[in-house]
Amino acid sequence: MAGHSKWANIQHRKGRQDEKRGKIWTRVIREITVAARQGGGDLAMNPRLRLAVEKAKAANMPADTVKKNIDKATGNLEGVNYEEIRYEGYGIGGAAIIVDCMTDNRVRTVAEVRHAFSKYGGNMGTEGSVAFQFKHVGQFVFAPGTSEDKVMEVALEAGADDVVTDDDGAIEVLCAPPGFEAVKAALEAAGLKPDVAEVTMRAENTIALSGGDGQRMQKLLDMIEDLDDVQELYHNAEISE
Fold first, then answer.
1. How many Å apart are CA 89 and CA 155, to the nearest integer?
2. Distance, CA of 194 to CA of 188 (rounded, Å)
3. Whole-angstrom Cα distance, residue 8 to residue 239?
4. Distance of alpha carbon 38 from alpha carbon 20, whole angstroms
């Protein structure tokens, strides 16, 4: 199955994340806190917490810091109570945007997100206004040049739903969120290391933006992503330089 060209956008996003390592810790701690509060502190029984702890390890977070935040969430230590909120809206050219936040102050967060949208020509929408354009999936992305046949064989055997070859040669493996860990383990056992491995909201269709529109969209996305309460940012824009 053929797909769109996403590799440049993925590399840009990874570069942005590398620039903001300090904030990565903050986001991971909040994810650990909410996952442990909702599903308990036992990694074996809580897939969401397992994934959050993996992110913590990838960000070189000390094990003591991870444990302390799990203890806070499960009531063993006093901690902050975060709630999860999703905002939806439109960017440049009608591009769809989903903003997932964790906050201890809903009034502050919605004001900051609304300001970011309006500053660069976007619009906040109502709940459900754009979410239908995305699918909740496990996603693995391999760099151009990876063996498509090998990825397909291993992934489909492990229960993946689809393998997509993008226009630029990058390969995406897609699976249902509950199957994420099994597919990940199978790929790694076969020596296949993805550049991206995450449970995400994947756009069903994309909107190409370039020139001034692309620059304005990138400024809008950067401003939203830099907000302290933003955990994840999803959109369907393909921005070309």
1. 34
2. 8
3. 8
4. 27
Orientation of helix 47-58 relative to helix 21-39, angle to 10°: 160
Instruction: Give bridge partners of residue 88 from the DSSP assignment.
Output: 98
| pLDDT tens-place string over residues 176-211 | 999 999 999 999 999 999 998 999 999 999 999 999
Please give the structure tokens belonging to residue 63.
């094990």
pLDDT under 70 in the chain at which residues? Answer: 1-22, 76-80, 241
Q: List CB contacts of 70: < 8 A, sequence separation 6 or more.
A: 32, 36, 41, 49
Positive/negative CA dihedral, 112, 115, 121, 127: positive
Write out pLDDT tens, residues 143-170: 999 999 999 999 999 999 999 998 888 9
Residue closest to 32 by CA, chosen among 50, 52, 58: 52
Q: Say which residue the tokens 């992305």 belong to.
A: 141
pLDDT number for residue 59 = 85
Helix axes 63-73, 47-58, angle to 10 degrees: 150
- What's the CA gap between 155 and 176, in Å, rounded? 12
Amino acid at 153: E
pTM of the model: 0.79
Of the candidates 174, 145, 136, 170, which has an alpha carbon nearest to the alpha carbon of residue 158?
A: 174
Structure-block tokens of residue 180:
């994420």
**How is residue 2 written in tokens?**
């053929």
H or E stretch including 151? helix 148-157
> Rounded to an integer, what distance in angstroms lies between the CA atom of residue 6 and that of residue 73?
36
DSSP-assigned letter for residue 111: H
Three-state SS at 1:
coil
